[in-house]
Amino acid sequence: MTWRRSRLRGSMTAEFVILVPVVMTMVLFVTHVGRVQTASQAVRHVADMAARSGSRAAGDRAVATAHHKATLEMSRSDHDCERFAIGVSVATKGEIQLLTTEVSCRVRTAGLSMLRLPAALVKASSTETIDRYRGSR
Predict the structure, then answer these.
(1) Closest C-alpha to 53, from 83, 38, 73
(2) Which helix (H) or strand (E) holds 91?
């Protein structure tokens, strides 16, 4: 009876040694996917907010307003970005002016070095029509 118990204990140890790295890798991978998803939503939200804010600004202030709003939102929000970049441009199509905001973010990989994944880059853009009648009164 004693021999049988010690043999089962050895079997459990072998299973534990094999399964722990697999489970840890799965947990770290799920953490990475969660960070990428969170950063993606944050970047999309910031791009939308900045484009909307810039489209409501009067005249030549649209680009500066959009850039300021994007910078403010990225620094204020709780996201998983290490670094971010913001680009704002205005294009004219006929009488309509379009403001496009592009935001990109490198997802934080702190604590996930065991996975050896390359840093994910998340991008989003949003385009709004500039309200040409705002501020014309």
Answers:
(1) 73
(2) strand 81-93
- Residues whose CB falls within 8 Å of the CB of residue 84, separated by 6 or more in sequence, listed in order: 43, 74, 103, 104, 105, 106
Q: In what order do the strands lie in the sheet with 96-107?
A: 81-93, 96-107, 121-129
Average pLDDT, the chain: 85
- Rounded to an integer, what is the distance from CA 21 to the centroid of its chain? 28
Q: How do the domains of the chain map onto residue ranges?
A: 2-129
Residue-wise pLDDT for 99-109, tens only, equals 999 999 999 88
Cα–Cα–Cα angle for 118, 121, 122, nearest 5°?
A: 145
The string of pLDDT tens digits covering residues 82-129 is: 889 999 999 999 888 899 999 999 998 888 888 888 888 999 999 999
- Residue 117 DSSP class: P
Measured CA distances, 64 to 40, 74, 86 (Å) = 24, 15, 11
In angstroms, the CA 40 to CA 121 distance is 9
- Residue 117 backbone dihedrals phi, psi, to 5 degrees: -90, 145
Q: How many residues does the chain have?
A: 137
Side chain identity at 45, as an amino acid letter?
Answer: H
